[in-house]
Amino acid sequence: MNGPFLLTMIWVVPFITALACLPIRTDDHRSIKVISLFGTLINLLFVIILTFKFIGVSAANPVADGAASSLFHFTYKVSWFKMMNIEYNIGVDAISVLMMLLTAIVIFCGVLASWNVKKQAKEFFILLNVLVAGVYGVFVSIDLFTFFLFYEIAVLPMYLLIGLWGTGKKEYASMKLTLMLVAGSAFILAGILALYFESGLNSFDLQVLSQHHFSASFQHWVFPLIFLGFGVLGAIFPFHTWSPDGHASAPTAVSMLHAGVLMKLGGYGCLRVGMYLLPEGAQMWMGFFLILVTINVLYGAFGAIRQTDLKYITAYSSVSHCGLVLFGFTALTFTGIKGGVLQMISHGLMTALFFCLIGMIYGRTHTRTVSEMGGLMKVMPFLSVAYVIVGLAGLGLPGLSGFVAEANVFVGAFANPNTINRVCTVLAVLSIVVTAVYVLRAVNGLVNGPIKEQFATLTDASLLEKVPVTILLFCLFAMGILPGWIVELVNNAVHPIYNNLMR
């Protein structure tokens, strides 16, 4: 099974899975879920095979520190719109592969966590698979037009998934999310078209465009368009307000996928398109964006500390932690950019587990308000212990993935000798204290104290529910204890991007 075929199958399989659900009777929920689970399992196996193949190829073709251009592996291209030279052009580097692995793990766990979905289950899993196909397509695309096409496929199903299967203010949340993300997409499309026409190369190929030197004046006005456009999906301040409402209203699997993977498309696009193709624009604007993402980190943490709803606590926490992704990028140092990529992976695992556990707890207690809970360790020890562990990962405890990522972000940011960088780094580091407060307060309110009478007969996680929780816990510990192979892969992918920035 060669690399290009694997890359194609990874985004095609979710579409096939969605099509396979179409002829199933609407009331045959079990068959629909089995098909979806089988499809996600096949994709997980494909991505694991791809990861091992990529590690082998990377070991045989190491990226030199002085490399000027990104080295994509398993590349393949076919022209499909010759007039504008738009191509089905695919390939991956280490960042793409790791993000695809994260996506495969999260969606497999998300389907298992959604086993109790009964309302319009057929339509739910079809839309979920279409969304995932779009996410995979983004990570394999080298042609910017195809990249944008898959990006839209990944974003737009969120409107229906939240609006139809969500809770609370779901119509308001889905509409707000869609309008803000579509506005961000308009900025991205304008930036991509500007790159295409300004280059004069008649190409959307990322590798071709990276070899063209765009004028400084052009980069200075196009870079903020692209960075802000992708930044909206990454919940950059002040365009973050869709995120808490969207996460709080979304069903469990959608929250897992949205916070765990979809928001990372924002950071991925900022790095892959904005910073890589427009290095002079990045150098000019990063001081401004550094201030915005510092506000992100602090505002999200202080916002979380004021919440009483478990989903809103996690949603504001995501604003803060996704801010750390962009904070690492805006440091403009090798270690900072590497830390931002590691934070995308760490936060994806962590927040997926948070929302998975919250969904299981809510399914039993029928409340997400911390003050209405208490003593759940007595009746739900497995779910309670898992929540404690992921909470500790959130505050950066050594031995868990959060420590590896945040250490690189903060060290890399402080390595930039610019005074504003160091002041912002100190402020961002202080957010760890605030994070500890809201995490430990939520954990204490959830698992300690006397058990409420109405919760005394609740049951712990079933065997089926323990599977996704165990997988995500294993990944958190694996990245925290043995991060070497991930760090090495990220190093190789960041070198060409960093060298492009510094040239």
UniProtKB/TrEMBL annotation:
The entry lists its GO molecular-function terms as:
NADH dehydrogenase (ubiquinone) activity; NADH dehydrogenase activity; ubiquinone binding
Q: What is the superkingdom listed in this entry's lineage?
A: Bacteria
Quote the subcellular location field of this record. Endomembrane system; Membrane
NADH:ubiquinone oxidoreductase chain 4 N-terminal domain residues are 68-132
- Note whether Oxidoreductase occurs among the keywords: yes
Note the topology in the membrane.
Multi-pass membrane protein
The reply on keyword Lipoprotein is no
Q: Domain named NADH:quinone oxidoreductase/Mrp antiporter transmembrane: which ranges?
A: 142-422
Which InterPro entries does UniProt cross-reference here?
Answer: NADH4_N, NADH_Q_OxRdtase_chainM/4, NADH_UbQ_OxRdtase, ND/Mrp_TM
Q: What class of enzyme is it?
A: oxidoreductase
Q: Spell out the GO cellular component terms annotated for this protein, sorted alphabetically and separated by semicolons.
A: endomembrane system; membrane
> Which EC number applies?
1.6.5.3
Q: What broad class describes the main subcellular location of this protein?
A: membrane
> So where does this one cross the membrane?
6-22, 34-55, 90-112, 124-142, 148-165, 177-197, 221-242, 254-278, 284-305, 312-334, 340-362, 382-405, 425-447, 467-486
PANTHER family from the xrefs? NADH-UBIQUINONE OXIDOREDUCTASE CHAIN 4, PROTON-TRANSLOCATING NADH-QUINONE OXIDOREDUCTASE, CHAIN M
Q: Which family does it belong to?
A: Belongs to the complex I subunit 4 family.
Identify this protein by name: NADH-quinone oxidoreductase subunit M
